[in-house]
């Protein structure tokens, strides 16, 4: 990492802001702003020069759903290590979930996270709790927390099960213009499930979580959003029927958005059997059926699903190295999200490059009402340099996150983020 307010990026192919990736240009950054875009530019003065060799350049990517674990669980991850992983994955901004200790349920915790990340190359936006201590009984001071820097509200890790509490949160959502992000799960239907309920769970003799546990909660939240006019955002959607519910709600004009994780449009519940109960394929929502995986791709293609996020959930090695039913849910994902998306969405033609980048660059920020980075002269430089064809291996020595609980560790990847530029910081990813 280097603090490089003045930089000349040579031989880049911009995508977005009127560029389609076919034109190779140079891009000059001065004092953290894009000052010139043209071919044949030469470095001068104190400018650092970086030749991208024809790689693509887009606005900086954003992951709107990560767990940075700090404060309280620094043995799993810290803000600094989580941001290092984000930079390696090509993300210039992340939004962090509030299941920390203490929980992000007051303005002082929001401001602690903002201040702790201020000098890092990745901008961190806290997501505040919906309820105090995430207990689901009393609403937080949403307006005060928004003033401190909270960009959304969620009890993620737990659903907002109390319908009256959710109604109040959505009413505040409509006034404050922030989304309420719900972990969509009816606990009475889902527990004590350890994987998707279906043929594989029956064969393995494991308690399963049925898709209807997700779908019934989404249906409730759609009705509450319609009633209140608030903005409900569906976290880590995972079932075909859930996608259809969101699709219909959007058609009805209800203010609803949705995100999906790469593992939910890539892997199925068959992985648990194939990998002999590897706890690095245990997450919540669980890996679902092939029908559900196919529905995620369809939802991304037709715009029902707005954003791709990772639900990056690091755990210490000793926490995952236990029997499957005792292992915590969650996997890391910041470092592999782009490669999985290239393989599963770009290469098969589910999405073209501009459409895929929209899920990484524009839509997460639209949902959170954040500034969308532009590639144009006079704009603040918030950029990701990347390719779609480089072959590389996700090996442990390349891991930047503090944890290694990833189902992709050791796998061959296609496409990677080469560098990011944000806030005057230029981070080049060497592998």
How would you portray this structure in words?
30% of the residues lie in helices and 22% in strands. By secondary structure, the protein is α/β, with parallel strands linked by helices. The protein folds into two domains: 2-57 and 380-428, Roll (Urease, subunit C, domain 1); 60-368, TIM Barrel. Strands 1, 2, 3, 4, 5, 6, 17, 20 and 21 form a nine-stranded mixed beta sheet that branches. Strands 7-8-9-10 form a four-stranded parallel beta sheet. A four-stranded parallel beta sheet has the order 11-14-15-16. Helix 2 (107-116) packs parallel to helix 3, helix 4 (163-176) packs across helix 7 (212-228) and helix 8 runs parallel beside helix 10 (290-301).
Number of strands: 21
Global structural class: alpha/beta
What's the architecture of the largest domain, going by CATH?
A: Alpha-Beta Barrel
| Overall radius of gyration | 21 Å
SS summary, helix count: 13
CATH superfamily of the largest domain: Metal-dependent hydrolases
Name the helicity range. Answer: 25-40%
Average pLDDT for all residues: 97
* Unreliable residue runs: none
- Indicate the proportion of strand residues: 15-25%
Distance between the terminal alpha carbons, to the nearest Å?
Answer: 14 Å
Biggest beta sheet summary: 9 strands, mixed
Total individual domains: 2
């Amino acid at each position: 990492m280097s603090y490089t307010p003045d930089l000349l990026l040579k031989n880049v192919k911009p995508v977005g802001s009127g560029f389609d990736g076919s034109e190779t240009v140079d891009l000059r950054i001065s004092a953290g702003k894009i000052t010139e875009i043209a071919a044949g530019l030469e470095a001068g003065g104190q400018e650092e020069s970086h030749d991208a060799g024809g790689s693509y350049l887009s606005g900086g990517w954003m992951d709107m759903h990560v767990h940075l674990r700090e404060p309280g669980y620094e043995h799993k991850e810290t803000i600094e290590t989580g941001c290092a992983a984000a930079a390696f994955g090509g993300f210039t901004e992340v939004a962090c979930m509030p299941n920390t200790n203490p929980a992000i349920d007051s303005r002082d915790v929001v401001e602690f996270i903002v201040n702790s990340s201020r000098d890092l190359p990745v901008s961190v936006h806290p997501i505040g709790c919906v309820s105090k201590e995430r207990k689901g009984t009393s609403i937080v001071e949403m307006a005060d927390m928004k003033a401190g820097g909270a960009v959304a509200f969620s009890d993620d890790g737990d659903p907002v099960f109390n319908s009256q509490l959710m109604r109040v949160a959505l009413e505040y959502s409509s006034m404050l213009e922030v989304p309420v992000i719900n972990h969509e799960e009816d606990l009475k239907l889902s527990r004590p499930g350890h994987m998707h309920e279906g043929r594989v769970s029956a064969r393995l003799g494991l308690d399963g979580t049925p898709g209807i546990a997700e779908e019934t909660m989404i249906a409730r939240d759609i009705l509450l959003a319609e009633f209140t006019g608030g903005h409900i955002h569906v976290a880590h959607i995972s079932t075909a029927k859930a996608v259809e519910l969101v699709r219909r709600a959007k058609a009805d004009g209800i203010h609803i958005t949705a995100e999906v994780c790469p593992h939910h449009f890539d892997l199925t519940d068959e992985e648990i059997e194939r990998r002999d109960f590897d706890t690095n394929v245990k997450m919540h929502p669980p890996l679902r059926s092939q029908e559900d995986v196919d529905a995620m791709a369809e939802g991304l293609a037709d715009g029902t699903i707005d954003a791709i996020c990772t639900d990056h959930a690091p755990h210490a090695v000793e926490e995952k190295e236990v029997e499957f039913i005792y292992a915590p849910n969650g996997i890391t994902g910041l470092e592999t999200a782009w490669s999985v998306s290239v393989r599963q969405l770009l290469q098969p033609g589910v999405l073209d490059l501009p459409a895929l980048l929209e899920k990484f660059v524009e839509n997460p920020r639209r949902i959170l009402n954040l500034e969308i980075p532009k590639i144009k002269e006079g704009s603040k430089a918030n950029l990701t340099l990347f390719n779609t064809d480089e072959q590389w291996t996700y090996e442990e020595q390349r891991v930047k996150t503090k944890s290694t609980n990833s189902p992709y560790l050791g796998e061959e990847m296609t496409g990677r983020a080469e560098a990011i530029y944000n806030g005057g910081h230029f981070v080049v990813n060497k592998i």
